[in-house]
Backbone:
């Protein structure tokens, strides 16, 4: 049985106090729902520094509201709340769907939007016990100098496995980050980087406090799909989201994001030539996007699902997502 190491728990009463604690404790980690952090602490993946419990900030950071046309989501909104909130289900149905597909009901009641966006990357070679990893000789992500996924790899390719990120990327969302130096608004497209050891731009003394979805995205047709081994609980073998706007059969905007491939969600490129053109049927558009996604996306052996099968099923999932968005 794996147990938690001895931990110091710090309990700030405000965002201002929380970021000061992060600044003064370089090895501290924020604890929201704990659905990812606690198991990883048990695995011995992190140094057992203090944890900064954020539950006391719920009044400050748990909200869903419209301001100046944009939809603002507090980082401590639970995934269960997002899956059921009337405003989210009406304006951001793909996000509600993605939240509803995370883990199981108990974990969704604990897990938060901010925690899901900042979810640590996963890999079959790292999300194991310390004993298992030691027998293998560790890896680039923790304590080792080799990558077991990519021979001679110089950068960790553990997979981004958060389900809310692909949806919010297709909707051009931004995140508000707060530190002792003040607040900054960063496009979610710039938030993620291609390093599996730490795949976000979040500084050690920063806290993600809010997600903003711009007004122009709220009316888009959108859909989310997730491939996993079982129908519930599992992390994605693939997940993807599509968002588009069309008028009288002509595309006005289009975005497709595929994730659970490598450290950074992949926004499919080169779709501008489809804009301003009649798309024909939903199936035809889905097939075309599926071909382009298949060409750009190459799953790796960083999760315990055959990468070639994941790549071959990708166009099917893209077509289904497009058909759902246009239904």
Residues:
């Amino acid at each position: 049985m794996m147990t938690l190491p001895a931990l110091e728990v710090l309990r700030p009463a405000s965002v201002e106090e929380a970021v000061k604690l992060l600044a003064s404790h370089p090895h501290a980690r924020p604890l929201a729902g704990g659905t990812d952090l606690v198991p990883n602490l048990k695995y011995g993946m992190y140094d057992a520094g203090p944890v900064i419990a954020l539950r006391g900030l719920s009044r400050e950071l748990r909200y869903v509201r419209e301001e100046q046309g944009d939809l603002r989501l507090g980082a401590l909104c639970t995934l269960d709340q997002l899956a059921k909130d009337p405003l989210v289900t009406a304006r951001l149905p793909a996000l509600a769907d993605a939240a509803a597909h995370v883990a199981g009901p108990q974990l969704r009641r604990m897990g938060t939007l901010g925690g899901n966006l900042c979810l640590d990357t996963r890999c079959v070679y790292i999300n194991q016990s310390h004993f298992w990893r030691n027998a293998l000789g560790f890896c680039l992500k923790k304590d080792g100098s080799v990558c077991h996924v990519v021979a001679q790899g110089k950068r960790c390719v553990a997979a981004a496995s958060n389900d809310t990120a692909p949806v919010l990327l297709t909707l051009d969302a931004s995140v508000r980050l707060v530190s002792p130096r003040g607040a900054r608004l960063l496009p979610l497209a710039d938030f993620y980087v291609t390093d599996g050891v730490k795949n976000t731009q979040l500084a050690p003394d920063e806290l993600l406090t809010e997600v903003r979805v711009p007004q122009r995205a709220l009316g888009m047709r959108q859909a989310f799909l997730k491939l996993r081994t079982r129908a519930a609980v599992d992390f994605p073998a693939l997940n993807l989201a599509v968002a588009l706007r069309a008028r009288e059969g002509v595309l006005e905007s289009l975005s497709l994001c595929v994730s659970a491939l490598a450290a950074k969600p992949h926004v499919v490129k080169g779709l501008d030539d489809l804009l301003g053109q009649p798309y024909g049927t939903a199936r035809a558009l889905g097939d075309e996007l599926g071909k382009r996604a298949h060409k750009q996306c190459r799953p790796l052996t960083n999760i315990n699902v055959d990468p070639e099968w994941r790549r071959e099923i990708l166009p099917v999932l893209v077509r289904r997502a497009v058909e759902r968005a246009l239904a």
Summary: The chain has a mean pLDDT of 96. The chain has one domain: 57-118+159-326.
